[in-house]
Amino acid sequence: MEQPMTAINPILDDIRVFLPRLTAACESMAKLLYQQLTDQTWQQFGDIVEGIDDLYRTLNAIQADMEHSIGFYALKEVLARTTVALSEQFQAMNQCMDNEDYVGASDRMKYELIASIEQLAAYVGEPTAVLEHRYVSNLTYFKAHYPQLYLQFSGRPREEVQYQLGYAKNGQPNLYIEHASACLYSQYDPAHEAQCWVESLGDRSGSKSHCMVFGFGFGYHVRAYADAYPEHWMYIYEPDEQVFQSAMSVVDFQSVLANMQVKEIRVGGSRLDRSQLFHRYLKYLKEEPATLALPVYNRIRAAEQAEFFTEMKNAIKSFDSLNVMCDRYGWQWVENELFNVVKCLHSPSIHELSGTMKEHIAVIAGAGPSLEADIETLRKLKEHAVIFAAGSTIQSLLHFGVPPHMIVAMDGTDDNYNAFKHVNTADIPLLFSPMVHHRIMESRVANMIHVSLKSDTVTLNLLQSGDEEPVFDATESVTGTAIQAAIYMGCQEIVFTGQDFSFPGASVYAPGAKHFSKQILDSTVEQAAMRIENVQGAMNPTNDSMMAVLEGVERIIAKYPNVRFTNTSQWGAKIKDTVWEPLSSVLERVRGTMLEGNSVSNRVSALPRYDEGRSAEISGRLDQLYEQLLANEQRLRKLDKILADLAALSRTNPNKCGKLMMDVNQEWHAIVHSLPFQALYVKVFRNEIIHMERDLPDAVQESSLIKRAELTRDVVRPLIQTLLAGTPALQRIIEEAIHRVNKEKQLFSTT
């Protein structure tokens, strides 16, 4: 029967205490053997012989116990070798004593026995109490400096069987991973391994100041890298929580991290957690990304490592795409959100629909080419499931005469407006994000529900909905919003139809889609240089944009492991974490569940809107936004004047320059924490703000006042002038938003 490690650990702790004493006694005896032997010397020698004999017997007993114990693979071989060596060296020493060769006995003790005892001490490592104390100290450090790590590992038991702490021959901590049959590091000298690894990098990392590292392990490699490149910033991802937790017992994180430039440490977690890590990395990245990986993970975590860096590549594409989108649509998005405030005031929140669809499955229809093949089945399914139209899909559904139960819309571009302007959707409930194109909303007076996305900076700051109302993740397509909405409403299964995420049959849309010209669609397919596997095992053409949309949907799906996701597309791309099933089979499964034709619409019509008090609060914050924008304009003008004079003052009046730089910090702090900055600037001027934030640390860290003043001016002033130039247009947009709210208020007060 296997014994737990806890039964053997106390014996090992006794050995850890005993070995230094035995070493000291042997060192003393090795010197005494060169002198005239006295009765006391013989007594001391006898004590050593007895100690070595006790150690030998204890080691044999432990080895026997380990044969019936779990979790000691890393130590078994070491103890076996040491026991054999002790026996041979002990016998050789005794033979010298029997032959009265005391010099030979001293040599055996000094150069063989002591070396074996010290090596054994290195292998058995530190006492349990020391490991436990270090773990607690690391938790205390994390609580102050990395609170997410403190919450993650506080009170969490360590897996000691699959992850066995051990020590290399030089005494440095190591880890044996049972299920991988591998040690993290060299079993002789982990630090030397790490140093050789850094040297092998050559010039690959020297010119790149921000590095993403896959794997922390016990920190040898990142420490070696930090020693070689002390000016580089590291973003560290350790995929294995148990590896990191093992490190907490043997690594003093405070002393290690104090000598490293670490921006972020993440351990395990979800795809969303990794996305947040990538975003923080990209936010401060100035050059091409640099990536490193713990060498052993190239072997034992190859698939996970490849997926991690694939996710990172996708994050880079999304980040770059968002840069382009913000440059192109930032003003439009802000205008949409502000103009749609009035629609939020006069429509219920999705909060009112929480859990109301528990008895039904949701079908989210996309406008991919495969929709046509399943349209008749979808028509029948409408009596049994809640049908959501993902944005512009409404064109194709109405083209086939299959109106959905609900439309979900969040796209704020003119293309989306073009999709809606020729279809009559007044009788169909519309779930909208305030970022949707305001012209889509202008003609609607009823059948609306609003939901905020994390990217809706304007309405998040104006509505301030609190914890009771959800805020959905922003995704690359409206399908991600529809998924979150259906789950929030209680649907336990999400069925995809027409969600092809590629161009099957060299087509982009199902019949009925009219918001793009044939020329544009043909060009899109012709330029689709990528391929993706479809549900039939063949390959569909696709492009970066479509791949980003698919990755975003898969990221949302991964957040809901307890929800069933079914892909019914006959020709579309495979979707991770979904099961494929024909839509006709889904219909057969749910025939017993009925959904009355107008039940969803009737339910939406009966939902309460914001009361007068809440509406007044939101209107008041809109007024505050305008007033604070005017105040910010004055602050920005003041900052611009200070920054213009800063460089000259650094030479003529350093004291005044230093004071003015403090004023710059104070004024900028007030602007950054203002409502206009949080709601407007971060969206309209996102890229300019990111550029400033990337370059500002160089100015802050500059020791020369003259150079610091020049850098501060060159980094901050262009952004200040950009904000000033955009302020009049923002004023006009807010004025129009206030006008719309007041106009609607008057209309309702007279009816």
Automatic annotation (TrEMBL):
<dbReference type="GO" id="GO:0016740">
    <property type="term" value="F:transferase activity"/>
</dbReference>
<feature type="domain" description="Glycosyltransferase Maf N-terminal">
    <location>
        <begin position="211"/>
        <end position="287"/>
    </location>
</feature>
<feature type="domain" description="6-hydroxymethylpterin diphosphokinase MptE-like">
    <location>
        <begin position="338"/>
        <end position="504"/>
    </location>
</feature>
<dbReference type="Pfam" id="PF01973">
    <property type="entry name" value="MptE-like"/>
</dbReference>
<dbReference type="Pfam" id="PF20157">
    <property type="entry name" value="Maf_flag10_N"/>
</dbReference>
<protein>
    <submittedName>
        <fullName>Motility associated factor glycosyltransferase family protein</fullName>
    </submittedName>
</protein>
<keyword id="KW-0808">Transferase</keyword>
<dbReference type="InterPro" id="IPR045376">
    <property type="entry name" value="Maf_N"/>
</dbReference>
<dbReference type="InterPro" id="IPR002826">
    <property type="entry name" value="MptE-like"/>
</dbReference>
